């Protein structure tokens, strides 16, 4: 029985070429966010955005309370949505609460687990907002949010913004 080398070589070459098409996507170790969208549902809203993270360390467990993730630290929260209003005279200004402090919606996203050996991750995050408009401001007829995500290694993402929102 004779085996022709062309019959073995061609399938092996085909497998090699196909396997190169399925390379794992490589992402930077810092979270990268994009495509912010705002959906107004009258009494609430949802902010959605896409993210990638090369080392797959997005989110915190409830038990992760040791520094730098303790409740007195900036890093206790890992998602920040800063609220802005379009001032008719001065352009975009960060909205202020009754105490005069900037309005920022802060969230602690749960740990996102990656199965298998691949550590990089890609996905979308949806954030539900119940009260998203400042009722104490005369400038809240046009608003927007800036968004920042922080991973467990304390890498901060780029900052993105929603478009103009007219509630």
Task: Give an overview of the whole structure.
- With 167 residues, the chain is mainly β.
- It has one domain (25-161).
- It has one helix and eight strands, in the order H-E-E-E-E-E-E-E-E.
- The chain has one helix at residues 5-21, and strands at 32-40, 45-53, 79-87, 91-94, 104-107, 121-129, 143-149, 160-161.
- The strands form two sheets. Strands 3, 4, 5, 7 and 8 form a five-stranded antiparallel beta sheet that branches.
- The longest helix is centred in the first third of the chain and has 17 residues, at 5-21.
- The termini are far apart.
Task: Describe the structure concisely.
With 167 residues, this protein is mainly beta.
């Amino acid at each position: 029985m004779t085996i022709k080398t062309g019959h073995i070589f061609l399938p092996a070459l085909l497998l090699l070429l196909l396997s190169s098409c399925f390379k794992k996507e490589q992402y930077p170790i810092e979270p990268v966010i994009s495509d912010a969208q705002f959906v107004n549902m009258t009494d609430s809203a949802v902010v959605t955005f896409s993210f990638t993270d090369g080392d797959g360390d997005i989110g915190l467990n409830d038990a992760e309370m040791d520094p730098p993730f303790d409740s007195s630290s900036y890093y206790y929260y890992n998602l920040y949505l800063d609220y802005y209003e379009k001032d008719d005279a001065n352009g975009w200004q960060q909205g202020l609460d009754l105490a005069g402090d900037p309005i920022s919606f802060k969230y602690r996203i749960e740990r996102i687990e990656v199965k298998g050996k691949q550590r990089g991750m890609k996905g979308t995050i949806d954030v539900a907002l119940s009260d998203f408009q400042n009722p104490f401001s005369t400038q809240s007829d046009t608003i927007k949010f800036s968004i920042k995500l922080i991973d467990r290694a304390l890498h901060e993402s780029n900052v993105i913004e929603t478009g103009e929102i007219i509630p």
